[in-house]
Amino acid sequence: MASTVIGAGITIEGEITTDEDVLVTGTLRGKLTAKEAVTVEHGATVEADVTSASLAIAGSLTGNVVANERVDLQAGARVIGNVKAARVTIADGAQFKGNVDMDV
Amino acid sequence: MANHVTVIGRTTRVRGRVTGAADLDVRGFVEGEIAVTGDVTVDSQGMVGSAIHGRRVVVRGAVKGDLLGDEAVLLEEGARVVGDIRAPRVAIAQGALVRGYVQTGEGNAPAVAAARPQPAARPAPAPQVSVVTPKAPAAVAPKPAAKGGPAPVPARAAQPPALPSAAQRRPPPPVVPALKKARGQIVKKKER
Predict the structure, then answer these.
(1) Burial code of A64-89, b = ≥16 C-beta within 10 A, e = fewer?
(2) pTM for the whole thing?
(3) Do B6 and A10 touch (CB under 8 A)?
(4) Residues 6 or more apart in contact with residue B46 via CB below 8 angstroms
(5) Helix count (H) and strand count (E) of chain A?
């Protein structure tokens, strides 16, 4: 269970920094910096640059993503932006527009 | 999964606005304004640096800003609040610390409007003074009447430009020592 949750119906406009897991089911605009996993659930809207250990996206994300470990775009995800991580997966059914940088 | 309560975790810091139609639990730090239609809880570890507007606002942590509750504002033990509190029901438990204006009862919107003019009441006297300004010419008239000394009259006539100069006269005292220091530095620079 993520210790920081942006629930459905909530909008945060600004910058979030945290050492914990973050679960987004609502709306976030701005910037998100987390030291642990970030999850963007189906129905969530994130318009922000995201930096985290790992990132799982099933909702909508517009912005650049940097993850230390991995980024997973799940089915139903809609991502516009550049993704930089050692491991990146894009599930069948995910929409994606941007560059992928896997430190090759 | 869709019914998650929004939680700002202990190590989480939000710089910005938090808005929406859901409950909010603050255990970390929120610098910006919080305005939700659900309940807001500020945990004992939670800190909010700006105003909070919610249906029920429950505080056990620190808030620097106004608390506005559509239903209630409840300050529990450990709460530290610097700001005004307005809600139909306000409860302040033993152990809660508050500094600010507290107003309970219905009709918050007019209450808010009424309460803010109070600080505005200080500017209000100023308009009254300005209303008196028609008399000011009369007051000015005595000054000419006091013309006895011709020298003061030009001085007073020169007041409008003199005011900025008077404002300029205030800074110089610190400037003078600065000049002394500067002279020394300049000398050193010249030596270099």
Answers:
(1) bbbbeebbbbbebbbbebebbbeebe
(2) 0.66
(3) yes
(4) B8, B26, B27, B28, B29, B30, B60, B61, B62
(5) 0, 13
Asked if the model's pLDDT at residue B150 lies above 70, the reply is: no
Paired sense of beta strands B89-92 and B80-82, if any: unpaired
C-alpha dist (Å) from residue B51 to A12, A20, B47, B79:
15, 25, 11, 15
Question: Hey, are the CB atoms on B12 and A20 less than 8 Å from each other?
Answer: yes
CA B82 to chain centre: 11
- Mean pLDDT over residues A83-98, rounded? 93
Q: Kindly give, in sequence order, each residue whose CB lies less than 8 Å from that of residue B38, ignoring residues fewer than 6 positions away.
A: A9, B20, B21, B22, B23, B24, B54, B55
B158-174 pLDDT tens trace: 444 445 555 455 555 55
Choose the closest CB to B13 out of A2, A17, A30. A17
